[in-house]
Amino acid sequence: MMGWNFNKKTYPEYWEAYLHHFEKKEKKTLDSSRFVALDCETTGFNFYIDRILSIGAVSISKNEIAVAESFEIYLKQSHFNPDSVHIHGILQHGMIAKFSEEDALKQFLIYIEDAVLIAHHASFDIKMINAALNRMGLPNLKNKVIDTMNLYANTRIKSNFIDKSAHYSLDDIAEAYAINLMDRHTAPGDALIAALIFLKTTALLKKSKSFKLEHYFLKSTRF
After folding, report:
1. Which residue ranges traverse the bilayer (predicted)?
2. Mean per-residue pLDDT for 106-133?
């Protein structure tokens, strides 16, 4: 008699399509991987209360940023924090088209596929996205994640600039690399800055024979 598994959870089609990208078992290298640099603007820093306002992302392949294929989406604000508006400039109401949390995350999953995700202080952005996915009844992201702060810190250590415990802000690193900060504190702008930092730091790090991409994957981004 055929056994039936009544406990198996079913997920929406778009999540199953996202998971399908991870069935490939190829080893990711710096030259063969697709990377997506991303940034989230949020109402605050509380994973339980605060919400994502916008997500910006840009794709990187073979050391080139595909600016024309960038991703930018704004979410409807079910939770509004007026104190954060002076940072990101996103109003609760306005002319910008906004999507529901589910529609925005659905489009984001279609965009990232199985890319290695890049962000500055990446754990925060990924945890905010995971919190949103969990509210939708979905598991956490499966993508590998790299933090640009870790990459930059390693270039400093290898150059004998010491302080391993230093906290490097996006502004600090952008200034060190003479990266334009015109669109700072917008999700697309910060994503592009993270992408440029990724290219500059990996260009330095890969000169070492011991460089391996997997050494820079975050061990955990669980919410």
Report:
1. none
2. 97
Q: Evaluate whether residue 42 is within a structural domain.
A: yes
Kindly state whether residue 221 falls inside one of the protein's structural domains. no
Residue 167 forms part of a structural domain: yes
Quote the pLDDT of residue 157: 67
- 51-61 tens-digit pLDDT: 999 999 999 99
Q: Determine, yes or no, domain membership for 3.
A: no
Tell me how crowded residue 178 is: count the other CB atoms within 10 A of its CB. Answer: 7
Residue 62 lies in domain: 29-216
Q: What is the mean pLDDT of the chain?
A: 86
Cα atoms found within 13 Å of the Cα of residue 105, Cβ hemisphere only? 23
Percent of the chain at pLDDT > 90 equals 60
Separation between Cα atoms, residue 202 and residue 59, nearest integer Å = 16
- What is the pTM for the complete model shown? 0.86
pLDDT at residue 1, rounded to an integer = 46
Percentage of the residues of the chain whose pLDDT score is greater than 70: 83
Domain count, the chain: 1
Q: Is the pLDDT of residue 176 over 60?
A: yes
Interior/surface letters 47-75, b for 16+ CB within 10 angstroms, e for the rest: eeebbbbbbbbbbbeeeebeeeebbebbb
